Amino acid sequence: MNRQLQKLRTRRSIIDAAFSLLDEQRSLSSVSLREVARVAGIAPTSFYRHFKDIDELGLTLVDEAGLALRQLMRQARLRIASGGGVISTSVDTFMEFISENSNVFRLLLREHTGTSLAFRAAVLREIQHFNVELTDYTKSTTGLPLFIANLQAEAMVKLVFSTGAEALDASPELKKNLAERLKLQLRFIANGAIKAAVN
Amino acid sequence: MNRQLQKLRTRRSIIDAAFSLLDEQRSLSSVSLREVARVAGIAPTSFYRHFKDIDELGLTLVDEAGLALRQLMRQARLRIASGGGVISTSVDTFMEFISENSNVFRLLLREHTGTSLAFRAAVLREIQHFNVELTDYTKSTTGLPLFIANLQAEAMVKLVFSTGAEALDASPELKKNLAERLKLQLRFIANGAIKAAVN
DNA sequence: TAAATTAGCTTACAGTTGTAAGCTGAAATT
DNA sequence: AATTTCAGCTTACAACTGTAAGCTAATTTA
Hints:
The structure is a homodimer.
Chain A: H1 3-21, H2 33-40, H3 54-81, H4 86-100, H5 102-112, H6 117-142, H7 146-168, H8 172-198
Helix pairs in contact in A: 1-2, 3-4, 3-5, 3-6, 4-5, 4-7, 4-8, 5-6, 5-7, 6-7, 7-8
Chain A binds a DNA duplex through helix 1.
């Protein structure tokens, strides 16, 4: 048996265990090392062979969540390229993502306003990535000036994330309703941005 | 000595103790009953003479925070009446509020996406109040149709809260910058809503 | 093949938590 | 004046936490 491989596997099972514990009732700070170890199927003290801290594990989770988010963006772009409105397609893709990966999105959402400065900073970094990508995209497709495109992207991301937060607790019908309202609101922003650019 | 009065005083000191513990590193779920009791200057078990749970205390805190928020709104309206742009004045008032009552705002923000369904629901209720009031205000001052006014108000509240979250960690200069950007973004929404109403 | 490394284990400990049981003394009621 | 009520107390306990110390067995290296 390869030792490195086995170690990686255990590491993975720790990460997976942590994600599985992050349901609607638990946050990173309320998940204990022992609990993670229990679910991962290792002794509590073995945890330290893989992570210095529970916090180090937390940062790893945030990184993974951010990665998933960026993959989501790429997926949305592909869908847009193959037809459909930009806003509508993006919102639908996003809503699907948070339904299927609710624990991943919940992590980002919760730690975004959580108790650990390091986690908040890490989440903010991921959101910044999102902002930058959306700004570029907006600029290149609409020709808006950078400053305006940036403001628009930032507002949109905030609105989308806020609505996503609401959608996490919502029933399927309510989710659909939220998505429709969100699309209209994003159009408000897009149109308002265009008007600001013209003046 | 009046007994009822004394009990109310102790209750107050428990609430104040809890608020004082909710700094940038602590959330309701991470504050222990014993810790609150310690700061309030009572024995741990005396806590139960006032609240059934730590959760019951939490709901009380959310209520108080919501109250403070609505007082903020009234204050903003007064300021608007005595001159100054609606958006600009509101944002300035809001930013002052979260600077002066950062623990109160932090509570709402954190529990909004927190681990307790009851707390999330309670915060959502407070935000709904905010939404309703802003919708009414928008409808009566701009004459927009209810549906549009409602969408606009909701989007604005989400954007303001998101930016408020960012402002909590920010330096004074950054805060100013955030406020200016927020004002522009709110104008995007306002203008976009008007355009939607015209079409 | 012998020696070194190491992932995971068991045991152990001190610190914290929520809360049950029951006492006390002062305020309120009769 | 006698009785009841009750806010706050002390003591106690079982459950949980993070993590230190040190063993084991299997893989890796020499």
